[in-house]
Amino acid sequence: MQPVLSLVIPVLNEAARLPTLLAALQPLRARGVELIVADGGSVDCSRELAAPFVDRVLDAPRGRARQMNAGAVQARGEVLLFLHADTTLPPETDALVLRAVAAGAAWGRFDVRIAGRSGWLPIVAFCMNHRSRWTGIATGDQAMFVRRAAFDQLGGFPDQPLMEDIELCKRLLARRLPRACLRERVTTSGRRWDERGPLRTILLMWQLRWRYWRGASAQSIWEAYR
After folding, report:
1. Does residue 142 belong to any structural domain of this protein?
2. Cβ distance 7 to 36 under 8 Å?
């Protein structure tokens, strides 16, 4: 049977996370959701761990945008959802996404919760959710989904090392395609905030977004982020 919804998961050395992530996705797969892992050259056992629990594991050029585009090419669903390996979905994700699409949305995203040690993380998530609702700009941590037809018309994610999610949103907004801001929450890892410190990370991300808005190249921003 042709799947209606395909999940594309870009992966690079995520062996520690994949068993938990993919186990949680099996009820969706049992309901006909297609699962695709796009591996960017992992040197751990990510590919081997993923293979029994997904419909397809792809070798893709390294880079999140390239990996997601490669997965989208192979996906058979009419709706594509792009899921980071450190993000978990609500159990009823398929029903939520397809209901939003049936109501007219061409694309959308979820609200987000950030799991981590810092007491700042609920505040960060609150700001992310409300900023996204006001501006229409979503991030990959929010499990973006898009109709295949719209994704293909835009040529997929731009081939850049960072801010590919923001750029895709800008192009979708420019086309005035209707969007859905789902209030149900995905849970994403707060590891970068815990590792770098929450205030330092918040300031860094705002600085990078400001530079991107002012026209800095994605490559220069990626180098600063690293």
Report:
1. yes
2. yes
Residue 53 DSSP label:
G
pLDDT 10s digits, 103-117: 999 999 999 999 988
- Report if residue 203 sits inside a domain: no
Q: Is there a contact between 143 and 83 (Cβ–Cβ < 8 Å)? A: yes
Is residue 70 included in any domain, yes or no?
A: yes
* pTM of the predicted protein model: 0.91
Does residue 204 form part of some domain? no
Phi, psi of 125 (to 5 degrees): -65, -40
pLDDT tens per residue across span 134-176: 999 999 999 999 999 999 999 999 999 888 999 999 999 999 9
Q: Is the distance from CB of 9 to CB of 35 less than 8 angstroms? A: yes
d(CA 72, CA 164): 15
